[in-house]
Amino acid sequence: MSFSSTPARLTLLALLSATTVYCFYRSRRLKLLELSTNANPNPRSNGEPAVSIKRGKLFFVSQTGTSKTLARQLHDLLNSNGLSFELVDLKSYEPEDLAKESLVLIIASTWEDGKPPAGAEFFANWLAESADDFRVGSLLLSKCRFAVFGVGSRGYGDSFNAVARDFSRRLRGLGGNEILPIGEGDVDGGALDGVFEEWSREIVKALKVSGLENGISVEQSFNGGIGDDFYSDEDDDNEDDMESVVVDLEDIAGKAPFRKLGGATAETNGKLSNGPKEMVTPVIRANLEKQGYKILGSHSGVKICRWTKSQLRGRGGCYKHSFYGIESHRCMEATPSLACANKCVFCWRHHTNPVGKSWQWKMDDALEIVNSALDQHKKMIKQMKGVPGVTQERLAEGLSPRHCALSLVGEPIMYPEINTLVDELHTRRISTFLVTNAQFPDKIKMLKPITQLYVSVDAATKESLKAVDRPLFGDFWERFTDSLTALRDKHQRTVYRLTLVKGWNTEELDAYFELFSLGQPDFVEIKGVTYCGSSATSKLTMENVPWHADVKAFSEAIALKSKGEYEVACEHAHSCCVLLAKTDKFKVNGQWFTWIDYEKFHDLVSNSKTVASGKSFDSTDYMAATPLWAVYGAEEGGFDPVQARYRKERNHRPKP
């Protein structure tokens, strides 16, 4: 054949093209095989199918950061065992890609009402819709192996780890192969770290046994070579951009390093094998202490209040000084129970404390708690020596506390020996101001006389109380109203404490007034919510904080509704707080008697044979006259003129 002819030229061109394509294919195939051999130095050579390489995914679903921290810990453990995973926030993941995955680990938290955090709602909805859609089929994830660990609070009953359980069920419904039973961690049970560590070790063991080599997932490929499903094992650039872990109050669960479990204190299902667990875990203790808390024993705490420091320096006392005459620099703020039955949206401790419906922890002796609290409080007072404004006289007075505010955090009356603890304080002639969150009416009924007993009234309707307090109890409203009613039978001073949150509970004036008839309190404290900064656990902003003028307007309106039964008696403008008082008891000949004769109270307690209801004396027996500067409408606005007013300079940046 002559190569000058057109057909011959076309034939030669086709031959050369085919040769070029074949050479390129061989070169590419050899390169891929070389990469495969490097990634897997022990390739199968006995005629078994070749392997394809695919990196596993480690997802986290987090609201406060706890699940993210746990995922980081697991990621480090996997890497240290030669198991390479990509750490991914589920909110940035495309659910449609799940069918392409061969190995998935999920650390999932449960948020309000058993729902996932906002960032994971799209994934959760997609998973539920796919599992329920017959068109998708039950083999969508048949090539995917998975395991799920849940982070939740057992105090919420049936919704405990609902998100993790739902993920596990849905993934199995789509054909996924669960390599390990779901792990369930309880952030409030004190055993989250131990349970997660045990689950993590089992994950590593399961992955090694199931054929993971050098951090890759091994898949069977029967096409005689490495096909189009090859994935490189390069490091993900996003991994280096993950936020650094900052241990903060909002986020103290799951921060402990991995540690060995064993011996008499090994944890099983969140409980200590040698008896009741401690309320405060070592991790929580360490982080709270960094924030200035002094943890007493296994479940109590004490912390110096900023108003204690302020009055030590002669710069003014708190609202209780204006309303009731306490000496702020001689007041100790403490609690015998860091646990609570609510997770209020305005919690000024950002939900750092455990929650529970009943006492389920190791219990410390009441005498030891009081002694330890006083010792730690005095040590903190001594640290004020030499601070500008602190005189030797005030420092000496501060070292002899005369008041105890049992309201630091948590629910004090959950402590089974609360009456014994109160007796220990009264024996030392230390007055008691106890605050309860209105979920334990039987405990209120059993209380011995308290100098002043508070009940938090955070909302006036069942719906708003659930939204604001986020209670654990299903019958929270009945418990709330029963708690208010229990106040009516108390003969010592009783107080409703209202915290106003704009946009949440400030529009319920009529409903609030209807609650007055249940407990018939001596006083009603109305205070604007204190903004404690942004937090993943709280939706509040500065827009939710009322002005003092708003609090005054609300107080005047509710007093007007009482038709003279209550009047506005005092105010403390600095604290954005106003006091209503019963006129028939505490307004004598036109003068207010909201202050307390503390020495008289202690005499009454020690000299009378009181029973739990305290019938032997009542609130009018130890009242004292209110100074004019503390009365509502006074020019001082509740600021003690003996103190020196100090105003901080504000140098906020202007809004853009």
Automatic annotation (TrEMBL):
<dbReference type="Pfam" id="PF00258">
    <property type="entry name" value="Flavodoxin_1"/>
</dbReference>
<dbReference type="GO" id="GO:0010181">
    <property type="term" value="F:FMN binding"/>
</dbReference>
<keyword id="KW-0411">Iron-sulfur</keyword>
<keyword id="KW-0819">tRNA processing</keyword>
<dbReference type="InterPro" id="IPR007197">
    <property type="entry name" value="rSAM"/>
</dbReference>
<dbReference type="InterPro" id="IPR029039">
    <property type="entry name" value="Flavoprotein-like_sf"/>
</dbReference>
<comment type="similarity">
    <text>Belongs to the TYW1 family.</text>
</comment>
<keyword id="KW-0949">S-adenosyl-L-methionine</keyword>
<keyword id="KW-0547">Nucleotide-binding</keyword>
<dbReference type="InterPro" id="IPR001094">
    <property type="entry name" value="Flavdoxin-like"/>
</dbReference>
<dbReference type="InterPro" id="IPR013917">
    <property type="entry name" value="tRNA_wybutosine-synth"/>
</dbReference>
<comment type="pathway">
    <text>tRNA modification; wybutosine-tRNA(Phe) biosynthesis.</text>
</comment>
<dbReference type="InterPro" id="IPR008254">
    <property type="entry name" value="Flavodoxin/NO_synth"/>
</dbReference>
<protein>
    <recommendedName>
        <fullName>tRNA 4-demethylwyosine synthase (AdoMet-dependent)</fullName>
        <ecNumber>4.1.3.44</ecNumber>
    </recommendedName>
</protein>
<dbReference type="GO" id="GO:0031591">
    <property type="term" value="P:wybutosine biosynthetic process"/>
</dbReference>
<feature type="domain" description="Radical SAM core">
    <location>
        <begin position="324"/>
        <end position="567"/>
    </location>
</feature>
<comment type="function">
    <text>Probable component of the wybutosine biosynthesis pathway. Wybutosine is a hyper modified guanosine with a tricyclic base found at the 3'-position adjacent to the anticodon of eukaryotic phenylalanine tRNA. Catalyzes the condensation of N-methylguanine with 2 carbon atoms from pyruvate to form the tricyclic 4-demethylwyosine, an intermediate in wybutosine biosynthesis.</text>
</comment>
<dbReference type="InterPro" id="IPR034556">
    <property type="entry name" value="tRNA_wybutosine-synthase"/>
</dbReference>
<dbReference type="InterPro" id="IPR013785">
    <property type="entry name" value="Aldolase_TIM"/>
</dbReference>
<keyword id="KW-0456">Lyase</keyword>
<dbReference type="Pfam" id="PF08608">
    <property type="entry name" value="Wyosine_form"/>
</dbReference>
<dbReference type="GO" id="GO:0046872">
    <property type="term" value="F:metal ion binding"/>
</dbReference>
<keyword id="KW-0004">4Fe-4S</keyword>
<dbReference type="Pfam" id="PF04055">
    <property type="entry name" value="Radical_SAM"/>
</dbReference>
<dbReference type="InterPro" id="IPR058240">
    <property type="entry name" value="rSAM_sf"/>
</dbReference>
<dbReference type="GO" id="GO:0102521">
    <property type="term" value="F:tRNA-4-demethylwyosine synthase activity"/>
</dbReference>
<keyword id="KW-0479">Metal-binding</keyword>
<feature type="domain" description="Flavodoxin-like">
    <location>
        <begin position="56"/>
        <end position="204"/>
    </location>
</feature>
<keyword id="KW-0408">Iron</keyword>
<dbReference type="GO" id="GO:0051539">
    <property type="term" value="F:4 iron, 4 sulfur cluster binding"/>
</dbReference>
